[in-house]
Model the fold of this input.
Amino acid sequence: MNLNENYEKLEESYLFSTVAKKVKAYSETNPDKKIIKLGIGDVTKPLCEAVIDAMHKAVDEMSVQETFRGYGPEQGYGFLRGAIKEYYSKRGIEFGIEEIFISDGAKSDLGNILDLFSINNTVLVPDPVYPVYVDTNIMAGRKVIYIDANGENEFLPMPNKEQKADLIYICSPNNPTGAVYNRNQLKEWVDYARSMDAIILFDSAYECFISDSNLPRSIYEIEGAKSCAIEFCSFSKMAGFTGTRCGYTVIPNELGKLNRMWLRRQSTKFNGVPYVVQRGAEAVFTEVGQKEIYENINYYKENAKIISDTLKDCNIWHVGGKHSPYIWLKCPNNMKSWEFFDYLLENAQVVGTPGAGFGKNGEGYFRLTSFGSRENTIEAMGRFVKLFK
Ligand code: MLT
Done:
């Protein structure tokens, strides 16, 4: 028996687990302090009424012999895939439902998709980046190369034609920086991928936060993308499903074998998302569902504005928060990321995510999320003013 030694190359624990461990230790020694968590991007608003109604109805169906359901299709029920097909179609992007796969979230699929690719592939990721892209490839033993995202390129690195890559990760709006690629920039990435027969793994988990209609919300808005990109999306941030778990992945037929390989992989290793959850997800795309989810998204966007206004007031450099729930700031007084994490926890009992946890270029930066409650966001920002103004 030999262990997978690639695990030795990983950080000791996953970024958000390390943060949670530190916060737990602090709260155990300071039980009287109120800690405000603006670290992991976890939503706080309850599921909207349209979703809850649909789930209740589905639960009732499960209690009746005639409407009870056992195993569902591994790739998802037709009703939800149809609703997603329609969601794309409204934006002028056409897919057949066989190109859409329902998952238990973008995180799982972003990791699982690697089953389809040889470990000899070279993987290109921006730095800083959502740690799942890097960790899942390290676990498999793939070579990871980085492209710098920094203040100079406004955290939107562009392809270097000299650099050879087989798999390319793009997250736009970006986690952690909140930066969003425009159409011309994404077109350059698509052209680059096509020129080297690479695949773009496009994470669009935050697309609903884009409020400028000129900015692309899907890679498939870009000509040629169907022949070089897989898109991953999630109901987590769009509709508050972080605990409920549902997402979808689009693998266009133009990618040849990949669509069939993914179906083969999913039908072997995955048994689908619960019927009740898929009915809830379907309701997100109804007229009422859309209205209700945007009430929540706008609530979070207002929180982001409160954070951004406070940071401005405190003269703290930051970006993001406009088309994204994340605000990416430069740690005050040249502190390092983890140093600032400890400082903020000890002096303001506010939790954020250290930029260094997203890559070397994140050092000296810090991420705050707008997914907290309004009350907590205002209170946390009051504590910032006391410390930094
Ligand atoms: C984050 O905070 O970066 C996200 O919540 C992580 C995730 O979606 O898995």
Notes: The CA atoms of residues 117 and 167 lie 9 Å apart. Residues 40-42, 107, 130, 175 surround D-malate (CB under 6 Å). The chain has twelve helices and 13 strands. The chain has a mean pLDDT of 97.
